[in-house]
Amino acid sequence: MLRGATLRVTRPRLSVLSTVHAQPHLDTDSIIGLVRADLGDVSHQAVYDVLRALTTAGLVRRIQPTGSPARYESRVGDNHHHVVCRSCGAIADIDCAVGEAPCLTASDDHGFTIDEAEVIYWGVCPDCSTATHIDTAHTDPPRKDSRV
Amino acid sequence: MLRGATLRVTRPRLSVLSTVHAQPHLDTDSIIGLVRADLGDVSHQAVYDVLRALTTAGLVRRIQPTGSPARYESRVGDNHHHVVCRSCGAIADIDCAVGEAPCLTASDDHGFTIDEAEVIYWGVCPDCSTATHIDTAHTDPPRKDSRV
DNA sequence: GTACTTTCTGGAATCAGTCAAGAAACGGGG
DNA sequence: CCCCGTTTCTTGACTGATTCCAGAAAGTAC
């Protein structure tokens, strides 16, 4: 898989790749933690480098909802989007109803050559929704501190 | 306008508000610069505070494409989205073709209560498109360093 | 196995934004 | 028009996420 992308096969890369495959939507810190649990000492720099290399090679996808650190997932190539919980930051995948390339038909593209439409749905996940059932409205949403 | 939102009228607020109205999609740094040019010394902290206050009050909207610092615009209330140039970071407004609430019909919402769909189109702006006309394909896109 | 290149280590540095304490400014009541 | 209480601004330190750098180590091709 790495070789297919003309990338050298190293322990950190293998570990990061399998971590991202095992759990989608992990943030960088969590990935560093899991990789270290797997391999022992690995510099954070190495993980950042690996994630960038994998992202560039198209083996993983990087997502970064506003107010959240970068997250990575292994579902690539298909056109799917994400729902983000305003309360706890949980992320889930969404296949857009519109089909292959949703919303790519902008009404007026201002001359831009558009190649991708990125959609982020904002809402509240089932867990948080039931947790704050008594007072659904006035809990000022953290929007940060996300940690899946 | 500020009074309407139960906000005290101060010089920094007036300046920030008119700056954001004058030029949409400015990043925080640029706003600080323009406000200082207008008023003299103003602390960056004040601008951050003002921007947050205005955002919370719904007088301005905050947008933050991946890899770019926060930007602000005065078009609020309507449902519009943005195109971002991969090359120079320029941003333009887009009224989604689907109508009022585009793409809000996710195929499977995983139990989330969705209240907003945020769409960001990625592409290349007319300027960059003509500038790199000779070699349209292999200019590795900076994706950062955006500065409108 | 050896040489060359890419990648990883360790540490410092940057960038965007937040926190905290005290000073200054706003605006309602006298 | 001035005073007072609250909100907002100033100053300056600080955090979190990410990047930059130089040298050491590990992959790969021959």
General description of the model:
2 copies of one chain form a homodimer. Chain A has 148 residues and is of the alpha+beta class. Chain A folds into 2 domains: 3-72, Winged helix-like DNA-binding domain superfamily/Winged helix DNA-binding domain (Arc Repressor Mutant, subunit A, Orthogonal Bundle); 78-148, 2-Layer Sandwich (Dna Ligase, domain 1), CATH 3.30.1490. Chain A is built from 4 helices and 6 strands, in the order H-E-H-H-E-E-E-E-E-H. Chain A has helices at residues 11-22, 28-39, 44-57, 126-131; strands spanning 26-27, 61-63, 71-73, 81-85, 91-94, 113-124. In chain A, the strands form 2 sheets. A 3-stranded antiparallel sheet of chain A has the order 1-3-2. Chain A has a 3-stranded mixed sheet with strand order 5-4-6. In chain A, a hairpin with a 7-residue loop joins strand 2 and strand 3. The longest helix of chain A has 14 residues, at 44-57. Chain A is globular. Strand 6 (113-124) of chain A pairs antiparallel with strand 6 (113-124) of chain B. Chain A binds a DNA duplex (30 and 30 nucleotides) through helix 1 and helix 3.
| H/I helix tally of chain A | 4
Can you name the CATH architecture of the largest domain in chain A? Answer: 2-Layer Sandwich
> What's the CATH C level of the largest domain in chain A?
Alpha Beta
The radius of gyration over CA of chain A amounts to: 18 Å
Largest sheet of chain A: 3 strands, antiparallel
**First-last Cα distance of chain A:** 27 Å
